[in-house]
């Protein structure tokens, strides 16, 4: 009999990180920082463990952390979610995405995803018995080539559409939704029963003075949405796997039914540490955009000394490069070749698509790295 996930193999992130290790390549593939987490966060974690916070947390998250998330959300987006009824702490954004999909998607329901999209979306939809309906990103005149075309998305809606998934800032492209996108999205969903899942894990990594259009800023949208974020991105600790979901009470109630039997609760001492960090050092997330913008600008300038062509990056910590001047290999083959022969690991875009555009020659490089790491990568890329 067919397996439950016939299309799924090993994720591209695992594949490329293994290949990078084998070939001692500079790993700009899988997205993770190679610098330290804030000292206060490590100290707070240590203190929490020594203070005995080592047993199960309340399933929905430590009350102090949910209160801190509510206050931070109000500071950032002018809307304060109810910490008891609307916020659930999860083991990373990945768990939250899985729980939200399983909370509302039934057998045969359609879920619209916008390609290229993060690779954990479709397997979760499949396991729930849903059908992923892929709509390509890209509209005329969009700065990155990965902005949504709302008329195409509208045309994909059917009576079976249960959910629409968006991601801003976007992995892998860095594209961001603007105010006009929000207006079109709002009009599209009005008078439908479609639930919105907004993946906002890169919410604080936005550049050039742009405003992150969180769904939480917009009443009509947030009343039908799961909004998901991750402390892994904001606090340079992707291995801690703590995230959260904000949704109105009725959606949260369904979400928590899945969450409580999936993981029940999330690593307790880290929750105390994040609560302290959010309250004591709001400057950390307020300045994260500037921190990463300096890395982006320096890396882009260096890339201009290579034959790779950098695309615009409005947000997030990934740089797409067009390698068509260097090679006519498809993206999977090129990234493998680059890792094995040039010692720089990158991520191809094709695994993020149902049907990758023919002839697309793009690779993703992560710039969440120390200057020395990026300098070494650039020195190797200059030999292309
Ligand atoms: N969504 C996107 C767009 C991501 O890039 C990531 C992390 N790579 C996740 C979700 C998952 O986040 P977490 O590591 O907190 O599970
Ligand atoms: N989110 C990370 C990325 O896009 C990878 C996370 C993972 O390895 N699952 O690179």
From TrEMBL:
Pfam families: Aminotran_1_2. One of its GO terms (molecular function) is kynurenine-oxoglutarate transaminase activity. It comes from the Bacteria. Keywords: Aminotransferase, Pyridoxal phosphate, Transferase. Belongs to the class-I pyridoxal-phosphate-dependent aminotransferase family. GO terms for cellular component: cytoplasm. Its cofactor is pyridoxal 5'-phosphate. NCBIfam families: PRK09082.1. This is Aminotransferase. Residues 26-381 form the Aminotransferase class I/classII large domain. InterPro entries: Aminotransferase_I/II_large, Kynurenine-oxoglutarate_AT, PyrdxlP-dep_Trfase, PyrdxlP-dep_Trfase_major, PyrdxlP-dep_Trfase_small.
